[in-house]
Amino acid sequence: MNILSELLADLRRRSEPVVPNDQATCPPAFLSTPQMIEGYVWPNIEVVQKPSEARVLLIEAIGAVGKSAAAAAIADRLNWPVIESARAQVGSYSLTGLLHDALGFDSEFMAEVSRGESGLVVDSLDEAHLRAGTSNLLAFLENVNSLANAKAGSGVSVVMLSRPDTAEIIRMAFEDFGSALMEVRLEFFDSTKAATFINGYLRRHANSGKSGNYDIVVQHPKAFAELRDHRLKFIAEAMLGRSIASLSHSWNEVRSFLGYAPVLEVLSEALAVANPHKDLGKKPAMAISSRKILLDLVRELLEREQGKFLSQASASLLSRLPADVEIENFEPYSADEQAGRLIAKLIGIDYSGELPFDVPDAIRSDYEAHANQFLQDHPFLEGRNPVNVVFGDYLLARASIDPKNVLAGRPVHIDENSVGPFYYRFVQEMAPTNPGETNPSVNESIVSALVASQIKSQPVTSLGRASLWGWTQSDGMANLEIFDPGVDDYLNFTVEGLTGALAIRGQLRQAIILTDEGVIFSEKDGRFALGPMAIVVCSELLIDSPLLQVEGVPVEGAENYPSMIASRGFDAARLSRVEVSSANLISIRGKCLWPLLRPYVTAEGEVNFTAYSAYMDLRALFRFFRLGAGAAPNVFAEKLEQGIVKSNERRTRYLDRLCEERIFWKADSHYYLDTQKLAERSLNLQKLLGGQPDAAVFSFIDWLDRGSTS
Fold first, then answer.
1. Domain of life, per the record (predicted)?
2. Distance between CA atoms of 312 and 317, rounded to whole angstroms?
3. What is the pLDDT of residues 219-263, one digit of tens each?
């Protein structure tokens, strides 16, 4: 593995720093003696190319990963000066001109650089590019190439640091110059360096005298190390949705998040506790924490970015206010505003959301300039791409549930290809809840993205429970349940904006769709994949794909379950091929006359519908029965009557019917369940609660609805 510090062994170190001719008149962009930060962790690097004749080294890194810290560390190690190009008026001010102003015309430093006997570090070329434009940047690079010319000497004597977008321009410029360029990329920290970074962060703040429990790493080193590793492992498990034996073995799956310096800084602050022994004894509730811990980290990062804006830009803005103008509730660059600006950048539109305070006309243009400048180096995005899937899913979830804040009422389309495994969890946590309801509300337009996100969170290795869709047409709303393997429970959504035909794109697996309206199987890359264990009961099915592939579990020896389609009508005009590895993987019920589907029709009777809400109400009545002191499963009467049934008309009717038939009976303060009577109807608690209702369950619901004693 390559480490940046090892690369410096090939570079010439000065015996002492280069001293400015006159410190008072030295350009502010010239730093003679930059200091490596205390506890600096040398990052791993990816070597892109390393030609032996190269005189210039380009270090590429995404925003907020530590380019300036790396520049100071390199310069400190080699006794080289740093040129802060963002402050150097790039283009109108050449590198050689700046060096002359700093060191005087009699200095031998430039000749030493040219011969490869000394060197310098040019930092923040991406910021210089943003300020000066491409043509001025190219002029500056041409001057760098002239100074460090292969004909004049050998060895790297100029190190430049930049983000990827500007690095690409630098790369092309040196190709045009005909000059070799050494290139490396800073990588995210591995697990060992991440732990070292946290330790160094706390030590540095403790030594600086900053208020807080930063000395925990010195006062309780063993307990702190255990707490730190426990927290990192817990977050990794929250991301992966599973328990892991070793953090280091699973690190590559979470490296772009937990190996990212801004995330580690937030974690370091959270680890600065007074008593690590006490915090180690806390067992966080997984059902809550695994869904919220990533959101909490994201929100804390946004708050830290606002803090940076307040410390670096607010004074400048307020100083420009006219004497007779005051600002109330001055909260610039809030978390909501940042999210809005980031979403707009992510999807490629101008930001049109409301600002968190009334910006006076006198400073509006300055405020926008500052906000846009900060956005260029925001830790969530690199260009228009998310730095990692956690940040990407957060922004897409925000765009899904709060589009008016960003898009001025324009509809939002979330491509299922763009979402990751955290999107559906973030939506569930952030989506609004309608008055009188407990489930968050989402629009039907994002259902495919929600399901695609769930699929990415749980690979097909076993069937078990995965995702469950259930639909009713009650008051123009539907219900969607999605199984979250991270908490071993279902996330519930109320679905609005129904179109009358649920469109599923590309794939449907481990799902149950029950709707008295239409379903569309829409192609992706010329095919639609069905299964394993997809159950669809609908009024009309449109297969809008030339190829239907029926799939099983792609694991050798795993048990397979067939997919089942039941519909009153079928439309498969575009279908030209059906691929089924085993005939028993699909069963079609209903009047289907399409020749390619006929071989899989197992029943041609009329398809009848049971409202999915009826199954959910029945399931709710049985859900809290547990074996206790009595001989039969039981539940507190008060809990069932006041907590479950409440004023729900159907649940009240079902409860009365179940008591009438002595399936339930009430004694003292409990309801009891007669499991034998359930067995007589081919039912048990597992079948009723499993989320996969079969014919016996539907027959039972029909019996309850009809009030029949047969």
1. Bacteria
2. 10
3. 999 999 999 999 999 889 888 877 899 999 999 999 999 999 999
Of the chain, the percentage scoring pLDDT greater than 70 comes to 89
Cα–Cα distance measured from residue 528 to residue 550, given in angstroms and rounded to the nearest whole number: 9
Taking a C-beta distance cutoff of 8 angstroms, is the pair 294, 235 a contact?
yes
Residue bearing the bigger pLDDT, 313 or 576: 576
Pick from 100, 99, 59, 61: nearest CA to 81: 99
Tell me the backbone φ, ψ of residue 37, rounded to 5 degrees. Answer: -65, 150
Show the tokens assigned to 22: 């006159």
In the DSSP assignment, the letter for residue 171 is H
Nearest to 389 by CA among 499, 241, 503: 241
Residue pair 118/109 in contact (Cβ under 8 Å)? The answer is yes
For residue 211, the tally of other CB atoms under 10 A from its CB is: 6
Q: Give the 3-state secondary structure of residue 352.
A: coil
The three-state secondary structure class of 211 is coil
**Cα–Cα nearest to 636, from 660, 594, 666, 601:** 666
Rounded to whole angstroms, the Cα distance separating 289 from 282 reads 12
Task: Flag whether pLDDT at 548 surpasses 90.
Answer: yes
The fold adopted by the segment(s) 2-186 is: Rossmann fold (3.40.50)
Helix/strand/coil for 694:
coil
680 burial via Cβ count (<10 Å: 0-12, 13-18, 19+): exposed
Q: What residues does 470 pair with on adjacent strands?
A: 479
Helix (H) or strand (E) holding 411: none
* pLDDT above 90: residue 121: yes
Give the confidence band of 466 by pLDDT, cuts at 50, 70, 90: very low
Token pair for 26:
């030295």
CA dihedral 47, 16, 110, 117 (to 10 degrees): -60
Both tokens of 345, joined, read 């950048």
In the chain, where the domains are located: 2-186, 191-283, 433-603, 612-706
Name the more confident of 70 and 329: 70
Alpha-carbon dihedral 653, 656, 658, 663, rounded to 10 degrees: 170
Each residue's pLDDT tens digit, 662-674: 999 999 899 999 9
- Cβ contacts of 498-504, under 8 Å, gap ≥ 24: 498/444, 498/473, 499/444, 501/540, 501/542, 502/444, 502/447, 502/469, 502/471, 502/538, 503/448, 504/448, 504/451
- Specify the 3-state DSSP secondary structure of 477: strand
Written as six digits, the tokens of 362 are 């006198």
Q: What SS3 state is found at 586?
A: strand
Using the 8-state DSSP alphabet, how is residue 241 labeled?
T
Q: Whole-angstrom Cα distance, residue 70 to residue 68?
A: 5
Which of 29-38, 408-417, 698-707: highest mean pLDDT? 29-38
Looking only at the bridges linking them, the beta strands covering 518-522 and 547-550 are unpaired
Please provide residue 59's backbone torsions phi and psi, each rounded to the nearest 5 degrees: -105, 115
Q: Three-state secondary structure along 589-611?
A: ECCCCCCCCHHHEEECCCCCCCC
